[in-house]
Amino acid sequence: LKSFLQLQRVNPGFDSARVLAARIALPQSKYGNEALLRTFYASLLEKIEVLPDVQSVSLATTFPLTGGALYNSFLIEGESNQDFSKAPSVLYNPITADYFSTLKIPLLQGRFFTQGDRADSPPVAIVNKSLARRHFGNEGPLHRQIRIEDGKEKLWCEIVGVVDDVKQYGLNQLSSPEIYLPYTQRCRRWMTLLVRTRHDPMLVYSSVRHSMTEIDKDQPLHGVSSLDAVMFDSVGEARFRSVLLGMLALFALSLASIGIYGVIAYSVSRRTREIGVRTALGAQRKDILLLILKQGFGVVSIGMLLGCLGSLLVGRSMAGLLFGVRPFDVYSLGAVVILFAIVAFIACLIPARRALTMDPMNALRYE
User: Fold this and answer.
1) Which of 211, 201, 148, 182 is nearest to 61 (CA)?
2) C-beta of residue 63 within 8 angstroms of C-beta of residue 151
């Protein structure tokens, strides 16, 4: 449960609130070259951005938490390695100029793409923080030239900006190095439409769909959902696992608590005659109570020590299910130990107090 809460607190690198996502796949037969693709996308963006309740609209090859980004090799100008067969691979995401503002991805250095980054303009690129740190270090990537392998073509681009990292493969995964290119310079037939709205994003779907049919009545939208739903689904497995194991753990905790109480309470109740003898011989009530608590806690302490050792051994097998929490978590085990200590204290105290309130002569005759 603590691991799941830690996962929920992870910053995905973008704002998913009130964003509609839908996939577009344009057929080769109708959109066979980049000029036709750019015309279609430009018309679609123009129609959607004037719709009521729409704040921003953009296109990207993929969007966060879906793991559908492309991989391409790249080289850095001036480095000794200029062999693409030995070059590192990075995520490669052609986008429109408003992509970062739509998802509210912060700019760390340089600039965003602009309308001036056209097909006939010098190729430019934006990299994320992970790529800048890993491949450029303290030198900084701005205005450096990188060469990207895009199919059979090798494209030189100038880095004009650095943006924050975005989780592409899940909240529990490390951010990967990523390169963004303006879609006007690297257009794709398959893109994802992202629409930020002022209210529920699903309410504008019909208007977005109508805008699409005005341009091409045969073109469908696929995989329509909100980014909040994508976020929710991305932790679905972890949520199910946490709920299931949490219910089982609470059930086990309840059984253990009831068991501790029952065993210790029964043990103390069997000592009613002993308590009566000690009282008749002049023992103080507090001394008897302390004796019972000491003996009861002695047994419970041994059990809790063995339990902690067992948790240390068995917990290692759960390491793959945990995020941001060690298998032997001191705070979680400490909370359980305190709970069992309270249960043991109550189990010792209630029957002991009952026995101490009895008349010594009646206690001596107690069977």
Assistant:
1) 182
2) no
pLDDT digits (tens, 9 = 90+) for 87-120: 888 888 999 999 999 999 999 999 999 989 988 8
User: What secondary structure letter does DSSP report for 18?
Assistant: T
- C-alpha to C-alpha distances, 222 to 44, 64, 234, nearest whole angstrom: 15, 17, 18
- Sign of the alpha-carbon torsion through 122, 128, 44, 46: negative
- Report residue 4 as tokens: 């799941």
Q: What does the CA dihedral 312, 318, 322, 326 come to, rounded to 10 degrees? A: 10
Exposure string over 314-335, b if 16+ CB within 10 A, otherwise e: ebeeeeeebbebebeeeebbee
Query: Does 24 score more than 90 pLDDT?
Result: yes
Q: Are 223 and 23 in contact (CB under 8 A)?
A: yes
Is residue 245 pLDDT above 90, yes or no?
no
Other beta carbons less than 10 A from residue 64's beta carbon: 25
Cα dist. 33→26, 117, 166, 185, 329 in Å?
Answer: 11, 19, 31, 13, 57
Contact 201, 36 (CB under 8 A): no
In whole angstroms, give the CA distance from residue 27 to residue 11: 36
* 322-356: pLDDT as tens digits: 777 877 788 888 888 898 888 888 887 887 777 67
Secondary structure of residue 125 in the 3-state scheme: strand
The closest of 180, 176, 155, 154 to 167, measured between CA atoms, is 176
d(CA 200, CA 226): 9
93 forms bridges with which residues in the sheet? 180
Q: What is the pTM of this model?
A: 0.78
What confidence category does residue 200 fall into, taking pLDDT thresholds of 50, 70 and 90? very high
